[in-house]
Amino acid sequence: MAKTKTKWICQECGYETIKYIGKCPDCGAWGTITEEIETDNLIPNSTITDNTEPACPINSVQLSQSIRFTTGLSEFDRTLGGGFVQGSIVLIAGDPGIGKSTILLQTSNSIAKNQKVLYVSAEESVSQVKLRAQRLNVDAPSLFVYSQSNFELIKQQIKEVQPDVLIIDSIQAVYTQNITSSPGSVSQIRECTNELMNIAKSQNITVIVVGHVTKDGTIAGPKVLEHMVDTVIYFEGDRYKSYRILRSIKNRFGNTSEVGIFEMCDNGLKEVLNPSELFLHEREKNITSGNIVIAAKEGIRPVLIELQALVGQTSYPSPRRVVNGIDYNRLLQILAVLEKRIGLNLSKLDVYVNVIGGIDIDEPAADLGIALAVATCARDVIVSPDTVIIGEVGLSGEIRNVSSIENRVKESEKLGFKKVIVPAASHLNQKDFNIEIIPVKRLMDAICACVHKEEALLTK
Ligand SMILES: Nc1ncnc2c1ncn2[C@@H]1O[C@H](COP(=O)(O)OP(=O)(O)OP(=O)(O)O)[C@@H](O)[C@H]1O
Ligand SMILES: [Mg+2]
Question: Engineering a disulfide at 426: which of 166, 210, 282, 405 sits with its beta carbon 3.0 to 4.6 angstroms away?
């Protein structure tokens, strides 16, 4: 009879202990350690496959011709670094209802034109998957659908169908009988992923696993899940907005700085080849004060994004600072620079900054845009709507250069803007662009450049 043993495992980080403790000594989380019972030695606990090839010099290793294959969605390929690598294991994680099953079903359809795909849904019945497939026009004959959460039965189907690509939707819903703990527990996730890795590497099957994320945005289950797989991709977006972003967090076979942008439509996800247009299309022609367009970067692509600031008299003892889409501390730093270097008194004013479209900006190139949005709104001055603002603001009020400045300016030019305010240190040559380049050295220069001088002086 197989021996069983009891372990106490932290559901946050996977830390193991032999008895219950309230606080995990590894990650510091409280009340996350739960009891799990494991049956001993029924499954291999290693990722070593049955590979019998001896060690050989690297220069004699032959690569097969088609080691990569495309997904049919160029934005997805871009995120993966040029498509899926055969025999790799990819984790796609995202909030509930963000569109993970949708993108995988769409992708399966185009992959199934050349390869056999097995789509295992552990959360939906075959007819529910069919319902979505109908909406997405998915009907490739080499796409097999299987509704099952028992990992042993899934393995049998893998043996029978012999797919080239296997999709597991989702890893938190699948369970193996070898472990008595419930689906979604650390032990279950770890063992199922381990088995999937063995299947991927030994049978050269590309495995795509869907993972749920927890409330704080991390993948539910142990961190080891991210270590085990070859590629981790987050599918993000605001559920109330139609756009979605695929972002690669870890990629053993490609660059992690690329992102793919999609729009959720009635018949599935549509690639967004020009993201700036998507983020600016709702922009009003009659701009009010505090509205600014900045050139941010999503992955390595420049994207024009609208920023709004609202500054008004406070009715609280200490004024409010509310941000949406930018870092709170970054705003405080910019406000401090505005007060000290420009003389703008904000101590009795509430400041709200919002990035339109629910996008998050975490790069310093947005600093100057934020500073100008706040400063112009405080004085109720309108920045010309055909101007794009780029630059980092230093603590002494100097404007610092940012990366990929040429690409950002080119994107502004492409979208029909007339002027772009850039850091003087970028040394851009006006001759290379069909858009007016306004180099600025200091924050005050930038304010003077985008509003009338007299209005700018009022801020003194
Ligand atoms: N008929 C429809 N028309 C347009 N969009 C739809 C329609 N039905 C679903 N959607 C979109 O698809 C999303 C759900 O997609 P999907 O089921 O792929 O998400 P998921 O990430 O797999 O969710 P879960 O985490 O629950 O598995 C919905 O939030 C909605 O935006
Ligand atoms: Mg789903």
Answer: 405
- Ligand 1 pocket test: which of 98, 120, 244, 263 has the largest number of ligand atoms within 8 Å of its C-beta? 98
Cα radius of gyration (the chain): 26
Closest CA to 327 of 376, 361, 301, 300: 361
HSE-CB of 297 using CA atoms within 13 angstroms: 19
Q: Nearest to residue 334, comparing CAs of 307, 315, 314?
A: 307
The stretches of 229-381 forming alpha helices (DSSP H) are: 275-280, 328-337, 367-378
- Which of 92, 95, 100, 167 is the best mutation target for the ligand 1 pocket, counting ligand atoms within 8 Å of the beta carbon and taking the most? 100
Write the residue with the smallest CA distance to atom 28 of ligand 1: 97
Q: Which fold has domain 68-273?
A: Rossmann fold (3.40.50)
Q: Where are the domains of the chain?
A: 1-40, 68-273, 278-458
Q: Please write the tens of the pLDDT for every residue from 394-433.
A: 999 999 999 989 989 988 988 888 899 999 999 999 999 9
Nearest ligand, CA 132: 1
Q: Evaluate whether 258 touches 81 at the Cβ level (below 8 Å).
A: yes
Atom number, ligand 1, closest to the C-alpha of residue 169: 27
Of the bound ligands, which one is closest to the alpha carbon of residue 212?
Answer: 1
Q: How far is the CA of 132 from the centre of ligand 1 (A)?
A: 9
Tell whether pTM > 0.85: no
State in Å: Cα 407 to ligand 2 middle. Answer: 36
- Looking at domain 278-458, does it have CATH number 3.10.310.30? no
Position 40 scores a pLDDT of 56
Query: Residues with Cβ within 6 A of ligand 1?
Result: 94, 96-102, 123, 135, 264, 266
- How far is the CA of 417 from the CAs of 359, 385, 386, 424, in angstroms? 21, 8, 5, 19
